[in-house]
Amino acid sequence: MKRVVLIFARNLKYGEVKTRLAATVGDEVAFAVYKELLKYTQTITQDVAADKVVFFSNNIEEGDIWEDKIFSKQIQSGNDLGKRMQNAFAYAFENGYEKAVIIGTDCFELSSAIITEALDQLRNHDVVIGPATDGGYYLLGMKKIYSKIFEDKIWSTPSVFKDSMNTIGKLQLSCYQLETLNDVDEEKDLPESFKREIQ
User: Fold this and answer.
1) For the segment 13-65, what is each residue's pLDDT rounded down to a tens digit?
2) pTM, whole model, 2 decimals?
């Protein structure tokens, strides 16, 4: 079965990435953290047995860490995160993929094994979801688009995972839940190595 990992990435621009984190640690640290997150996500996805597509927030970048022979490149489209994710899934299914998972670039705890587990579990489930400790989710997988999952959510708030699970339940979809992981959004989420650097 054709399968794909959809990677949502912000363009790496000083002062425009990890703004919640930057509010307490400054733009320089926030920029360095996001640069490491991008490198980490590239490393864990490059060997996953699936095609990979990076969806940039603003523009496609050439000659960056996302090697063209491994990663295809697209630009996110839509007026909120839900619509942008829905459009990315639509791109996948319109291009013949039968299993698709979407991830962000905010999680040092995510691994190749977890992404592979998500793709494999789509064999027996309609939806796969990976909850994050902040109340959102770090991964969503499906075999076809269920538009309601992306509608009427207040994105980037602690209710996103719970509201999404309520929608999945109402649609009577079978859902596989991955382990809970920690996204890096604020200073408290930083790995110890970064915390030492800013003390």
Assistant:
1) 887 888 888 788 778 888 888 999 999 999 999 999 999 999 999 999 888 99
2) 0.94
Bridge pairing between strands 71-75 and 51-56 = parallel
Who's near 28: CB < 8 A, 6+ residues apart?
Answer: none
* Cα atoms found within 13 Å of the Cα of residue 130, Cβ hemisphere only: 25
Alpha-carbon dihedral 101, 122, 47, 180, rounded to 10 degrees: 70
Distance CA 128, CA 13 (A): 32
d(CA 22, CA 124): 41
Tokens of 104: 């962000």
pLDDT of 197 reads 57
Hey, what amino acid is at 169? Answer: G
Instruction: Select from 194, 145, 144 the least CA-distant residue to 34.
Output: 194
